[in-house]
Amino acid sequence: MASAEVAPYAKVGGLADVVGSLPKALNKLGVDARIVLPAYRMVEDQAENISPILCEFPVRINETWSKQAYIRSIQKDGLTTYLIGTDEWFQDADRSETIYRPGIDQYLFFSSAVLQLGKHVGWNPQIVHCHDWHTGFIPVMMKHSPFHQWNEMASVFTIHNLAYQGEFDLDILDRLGMGHWLFSPDFVEAYGRVNFLKAGAAFADLVTTVSPNYAREIQTPEYGARLEGLMQYLAKVGRLEGVLNGIDQSVFDPETDPNIPCHYNSSQPQGKALCKEELCRTAGFLPGPEPILGIVSRMSTQKGLDLLIDAADRLLKKNARLVVLGAGEPPILEGLHHVERRHPHQVKFFEGYHETLASLIYAGCDGFLMPSSFEPCGLGQMIAMRYGTIPIVRQTGGLKDTVEDCKTGFVFKEKSAVAFLKAIDRFLSLYEDKDRLNEMRKSVMNVDWSWDKSALTTVKLYQQVLAKRQSESIQIA
User: Fold this and answer.
1) Is residue 25 part of a domain?
2) What percent of the chain has pLDDT over 90?
3) Alpha carbon 245 to chain centroid distance?
4) Which of 136, 233, 268, 277, by CA, is between 20 and 30 Å from 148?
5) d(CA 228, CA 183)
6) Does residue 21 contact residue 382 with C-beta atoms inside 8 Å?
7) Backbone angles phi and psi of 455, in degrees to 5
8) What SS3 string covers the chain?
9) Digit-coded pLDDT (tens) for 362-396
10) How many domains does the chain have?
11) Closest CA relative to residue 96, chosen from 37, 163, 181, 23
12) 200 and 287 inside one domain
């Protein structure tokens, strides 16, 4: 699996959690799944069980451009992660927030190096599984690069968020030594630009998304981000599948989480109240019975934080408290700081991301807000449920697949502050009925969000891709 971010080494969003967890579940099923990640400086400096440099080799990207690469590896929990490094780009990344830099050369290099890794480490994978636009040209290179032709290998491309597509100028093809014939609506061109996500989707043997409902949504103009036609075609020919993400339940576990002050489970939930008390202290709230609503998210309009800002004054009249953690778009950050200043005794906004604080919010809150404009899958609602915190979500993407109204949370459909507040009102009514509240808490804590089912589905899809590729090879022969 090739990705620009992988938890726990380099994490900006849910992409890292998925790529860090799914291979472990696949390995349990007998798949030899390994990860390939850029050798960011902070990973090389901080990772445990990291090898010395295993080998060095030149990566030829076009006729006149090559770059020296090296490979290191990390062994953790029975999983191998290869690090591909060079003397620039990745060496500037000293924390996760800095792994993404302007430009494209680093991903051209990384993609080219991924296709040379196998022969240098003595490993011949049958499938190359690429994640998001940063790796979108790997399936193209596998078939059409003059330097890398892996026609015998299959490729899978996973779209974690169709909104982020990686659009660049035509000269990208020159930098890769590829013909301009690829610059066509049938291949890598979209609206006058070379589109990396489209490239991956067009050339991969199979395209997956991170939930079944999102796979349907991206075939519509509302959610298709101008690529709905391609998504409709892929679905029609059987090359688009939605596979629901999971979470690593050994990491997100209130019985063992080292970041919360008191452990608990669905049978002995008393520790949750102590976590709420600690969250009140951390947020500067006076102790009290009021419900606390939490958010751990990227601060963006995609996540529906504009709805929250619009609804905040009306929400806080309902005798609730709000704790928010995240970083992101400046207008959203400014709006949340304004809300905090207007309601200093009810609102705490922690700007940035802190793993320990995130766990405390999941454990200490009563409700968890996800009013997303669109949500390919969403992991926050799954994590919240693991900690007995009731999700209040908009019916979109993976949220629709994972939250059942009035049974495992509260769902609203209309993209408006009024609809959002009505869903919160239904939660607040539940909160006043402690018997019903405890019953729902116990229910959501016992939902299985592990990768087991999704890993089985992924293995079946891998088998189908390999069978199809083998059939094509026989026909060619």
Assistant:
1) yes
2) 89
3) 9
4) 233
5) 19
6) no
7) -65, -40
8) CECCCECCCECCCHHHHHHHHHHHHHHHCCCCCCEEEECCHHHHHHCCCECCCCEEEEEECCCCCEEEEEEEEEEECCEEEEEEECCCCHHHCCCHHHCCCCCCHHHHHHHHHHHHHHHHHCCCCCEEEEECHHHCCHHHHHHHCCCCCCCCCEEEEEECCCCCCCEECCHHHHHCCCCHHHCCCCCCEECCEEEHHHHHHHHCCEEEECCHHHHHHCCCCCCCCCCHHHHHHHHHCCCEEECCCCCCCCCCCCCCCCCCCCCCCCCCCCHHHHHHHHHHHHHCCCCCCCCEEEEECCECCCCCHHHHHHHHHHHHCCCCEEEEEECECHHHHHHHHHHHHHCCCCEEEEECCCHHHHHHHHHHCCEEEECCCCCCCCCHHHHHHHCCCEEEEECCHHHHHHCCECCCEEEECCCCHHHHHHHHHHHHHHHHCHHHHHHHHHHHHCCCCCCHHHHHHHHHHHHHHHHHHHHHHHHHC
9) 999 999 999 999 999 999 999 999 999 999 999 99
10) 2
11) 37
12) no
Domain check: are 217 and 332 in the same one? no
Write the pLDDT tens digit of every residue in 437-453: 999 999 999 999 999 99
For the entire predicted model, the pTM comes to 0.93
Q: Which range of residues forms the domain containing residue 290?
A: 271-448
Q: HSE-up of 276 (CA within 13 Å, CB side)?
A: 21
Task: Give a yes or no: residue 266 inside a domain.
Answer: no
Q: Which of 65, 64, 60, 39 is nearest to 50 (CA)?
A: 39
User: Which residues are CB-contacts of 81 (< 8 A; sequence separation ≥ 6)?
Assistant: 6, 9, 34, 35, 36, 37, 73, 74
Residues 81, 125 within the same domain: yes
Tokens found for residue 311: 């609804």
Contact 270, 276 (CB under 8 A): no
| Sole residue written with tokens 């029609």 | 236
Both 234 and 313 in a single domain? no
Q: Which two tokens stand for residue 194?
A: 């070379």
CA distance 273 to 264: 10
Count of all residues that appear for the chain in the document:
477
Longest Cα–Cα distance in the chain? 75
Partners of 37 in beta bridges: 83
Residue 259 included in any domain = no
The whole-number average pLDDT for the span 34-59 is 96
What tokens does 278 get? 């600690």
